[in-house]
Amino acid sequence: MIGAAIAYGLSGNGARVLVLDGGDTDFRAAKANFGLVWVQGKGCGNPAYQRLSHEAAGLWPAFADQLTDETGIRLDYESKGGLNFCVGASELEARGARLTQWHREVPDLAPCTRMLDRGELEALLPGVRLGDNVSGASFGATDGHVNPLRLLAAMQKGLVQRGSVLLGNQPVDRIVPLSQGGFSVHAREQRYDAAQIIIAAGLGSSALGPMVGLDVPLRPQRGQLMVTERLAPLLPLPASGIRQTDEGTVMIGLTQEDVGFDISTTSAAAAQMSRHALQVLPDLARARLIRQWSCLRIMTPDGCPVYAESADYPGAWVALCHSGVTLASFHAGPLADCLRNARLDSRLNFFHHERFDVSSID
Amino acid sequence: MFHQLTDSGAQALTLTIDGERVTASPGETVASVLLRQESPVARSTPVHGNPRAPYCMMGVCFDCLATVDGVASTQTCLVAVRDGMTVERQHGKRSITA
After folding, report:
1. A320-323 — which CB contacts under 8 Å span 24+ positions?
2. Domain segments of chain B: what residues?
3. Chain A residues inside the 8 Å CB shell of B72
4. Domains of chain A: total
């Protein structure tokens, strides 16, 4: 998702861009995504990440329009706001306190969320039958959702239409810095030379980065989700952990599990996710579940993205995050512009992975 | 139109499809009974409303979904008929809030 977005943004105007995409059976967070374009609560404790999420959400409408205009692929993008449902009084109170703190971390930005009590929530969702214990919700005005599979397909089609080359099933096994500058990238017995390379290989970046002095600590975090059959509209706004897609399926999530490189699904998670979904929308008890799946999030130690150039091998870059959908507009826009000029904007300084070096901590 | 090769005669069960009484043989599936009707349609699709009839007959394609004894989106090729069964064809997106 990240590589496709950057490549789409870099493509055109005579740029020569080659995308080496991994194997079909690689861990692909991009193909298991929940599809939220989400700001509320993002980057609590890391204002730079919060600012980046606001920026990306602001860029999304124009980004979506352009992508659809260019490719003809409908993204089902909607930005009418998003909800975080709360069950019980203490959950509502805790959510409010957390978002108050979150807003305090960027005092110059007008708050984009507000807390809704049960009555206000019902007024916002006429005709929706909420569970008896739903106490309210936080409402994020800048939140939305999109079909993540269509997004990925559109960015891939768009980058090819702009004249770049996309090679699928080409997992990179070696990157060699060349003595005269530039790099050779080896995949499936083929060698590709480039003056600049960007590693956006998700969890696979742990193996590739150190070859060019980009050692980013990463861990997989498993997320499970489920989807129902296609249903008549029952939830007009996307919510954290529950959203109805344009086609009518209801996606239900999610888990955050530290289980290594294991993409099994578990019945315990299915039960826990179902229980929570039914607390919010009890009518879902009559829906059929169609599928449950899981994938691995790409987590840095603080959960924030990494954008950096190698100090040892200039021209080698890394771009990693676990919010590839929300940040797609930023990756295809401002980040691609920075990479084209081989210079990251100073507002992105926070996102260098040197923040994880033990020696750099005061 | 499909028809039964053998006449099961006295063994016939009765069920209703959209309120109409039809006969069936013990052991056959709801999907096979649907296929014998003048309209073999089990459902129409949720997004485009296209008609779908039983197809794979082995639980894979999900084209044969219908409401059986009040349970919506039932794979009719996996359910054996019973006397008195109520089958309703399912059209478009199903509402679970009504």
Report:
1. A320/A2, A320/A200, A320/A202, A320/A205, A320/A216, A320/A218, A321/A2, A322/A29, A322/A221, A322/A297, A322/A298, A323/A38, A323/A42, A323/A53
2. 9-81
3. 286, 288
4. 3
Q: Is A278 on the interface with B (CB under 8 A)?
A: no
Q: Looking at CA atoms only, how far is residue A149 from chain B in angstroms?
A: 17
pTM, two decimals, is 0.91
Q: Residue A310 sits in which domain range?
A: 2-72+147-218+303-360
CATH number of B9-81: 3.10.20
pLDDT tens by residue, chain A, 362 residues: 999 999 999 998 889 999 999 988 888 888 889 999 999 999 999 999 999 999 999 999 999 999 999 999 999 999 999 999 999 999 999 999 999 999 999 999 999 999 999 999 999 999 999 999 999 999 999 999 999 999 999 999 999 999 999 999 999 999 999 999 999 999 999 999 999 999 999 999 999 999 999 999 999 999 999 999 999 999 999 999 999 999 999 999 999 999 999 999 999 999 999 999 999 999 999 999 999 999 999 999 999 999 999 999 999 999 999 999 999 999 999 999 999 999 999 999 999 999 998 765 55
Q: Is residue A135 part of a domain?
A: yes
Q: Is residue A296 within 8 angstroms of chain B, CB to CB? A: no
